[in-house]
Design brief:
With about 400 residues, this protein is an all-alpha fold. About 75% of the residues lie in helices and about 0% in strands. It has helices spanning about 1-25, 30-45, 55-70, 75-85, 90-105, 110-120, 125-130, 130-160, 170-190, 195-210, 210-225, 230-245, 250-260, 270-275, 280-295, 305-320, 325-335, 340-345, 345-355, 355-370, 375-385, 390-400, 405-410. It starts with a helix and ends with a helix.
């Protein structure tokens, strides 16, 4: 019966999709291609009387298979994408974008630019208005490639100027690329979203031509506009710009404070801690201790010698002055149950000593203060250092032994 036939077809279609998915997960591209071919042929056979547009699954899966298949070529991939463009009006611009990404990955810059230009001139009734955002994205990527051409011309011009030559033709061409890139990049970053690469390129253009006020406005908007999603990179770019402009430390600290709140494990926390430690304000020095403790909570920082050096230096200053021991105590209270196993085990002491003696020295100092002279990490490292007749380790052992009462106050 007709109903039975439709039911059997539905089951076979679902099974075929399951096989395709399994082949993709196993990276068996040839098998995936065979199943996809069967799937498409069965659609044509069973629904020949009905108009069926290519589903997103077909063009995305097909693109993935062709990109990885050992016997496929860029020419075949492009041919497939062109077919998908002509068959799917609603997805035309999305398919164009994916085609461009693959061309760029294959190093075909000119072909990618040509495809973007063709897509930008595409019009199809009401679909043009509906796909307004995709069109802006098409224009933005064209702006990105214009920036790439501008950058190449700038490099040529700088090389010529170093040799004592001037090339007005290159300079004029470079300015032309600047104008085209700036227009499209400026438009896309007005839309709330994550536009890191576009923002970086646009700011680079503005800085090169000395428009620092516009660059600052763009970065502030990108970092602080509540309509944009929270984005750590926005604050990184703002900080880097302020640093290039030699802005006061107050502005730099403000930018990094927000970054710390979003990503306390960011690599710039070293810079943040250093600036805070140099401050004359007690509140900022206290924040500096909090920042470095928070960074070392993350596994990626476990063997970061700079971070341990920052913590060791501040802890040592506090211990010598015997002021603000409560700062250390507050930070340690929430960590004393898990930091010893996480950072200060005997196993880590052996490994750190073998791989990086400077790291083991800084960690041993912190371990000795926080856990006392009986700490496994401190005992192993100080013993190895004294055994190797290294003066700094003998001094380390004396320092911790002399200030052992501080451990009792912190742990109390």
């Amino acid at each position: 019966s007709s109903n039975e036939h439709k039911l059997n077809f539905k089951k076979s279609k679902e099974a075929c999709l399951s096989f395709i998915q399994d082949a993709l997960l196993q990276k068996e591209w040839k098998r995936a291609a065979e199943f996809l071919t069967c799937y498409i042929e069965s659609l044509e056979k069973d629904y020949s009387r009905e108009h069926i547009g290519p589903s997103e699954m077909i063009w995305r899966t097909g693109a993935e298979i062709l990109w990885h298949h050992s016997q496929s070529s860029m020419k075949e991939f492009s041919c497939f994408m062109e077919q998908m463009k002509t068959l799917g009006v609603k997805r035309y611009l999305k398919v164009c974008l994916e085609h461009v990404f693959h061309l760029l990955c294959n190093g075909q810059i000119d072909e990618a630019y040509q495809n973007l230009s063709l897509a930008e001139s595409w019009r199809f009734g009401e679909q043009t208005a509906i796909q307004d955002k995709e069109m802006k994205l098409i224009q933005a990527y064209r702006g990105l490639l214009d920036y790439y051409s501008w950058f190449k011309q700038k490099s040529i011009l700088l090389e010529h100027s170093e040799d004592g030559f001037s090339d007005s033709a290159v300079e004029q061409e470079m300015h032309g690329y600047f104008r085209k890139a700036a227009v499209n990049l400026k438009e896309i970053i007005k839309i709330p979203g994550v536009w890191d690469i576009f923002v970086k390129c646009y700011v680079d253009l503005l800085e090169f031509y000395g428009d620092h006020n516009e660059a600052r406005q763009v970065l502030n908007e990108y970092a602080y506009n509540s309509k944009f999603p929270a984005n750590p990179n926005a604050h990184v770019y703002l900080y880097q710009f302020l640093k290039r402009q030699r802005e006061p430390k107050k502005s730099l600290i403000s930018a990094l404070k927000i970054l710390h709140d979003i990503v306390p494990s960011h690599e710039l926390m070293i810079d943040f801690n250093t600036m805070l430690q140099k401050s004359k304000k007690r509140k900022k020095r206290r924040l500096g201790l909090e920042v470095i403790f928070a960074a070392l909570d993350y596994a990626g920082w476990k063997e970061n010698a700079k971070a341990w050096s920052c913590l060791a230096r501040q802890v040592k200053q506090i211990v010598i002055s015997e002021k603000h021991l409560d700062w250390i105590k507050q930070e340690w209270n929430s960590r004393k149950d898990w930091w010893p196993a996480f950072h200060f085990s005997r196993y880590l002491a052996k490994r750190n000593w073998q791989e990086n003696k400077s790291l083991s020295y800084e960690k041993a100092l912190v371990a000795g203060i926080l856990l006392g002279k009986g700490c496994k990490y401190f005992k192993y490292v100080s013993h190895q250092g004294c055994k190797a007749q290294l003066k700094r380790f003998r001094m380390l052992k004396k320092f911790v032994n002399r200030h052992n009462p501080v451990y009792l106050r912190i742990s109390g």
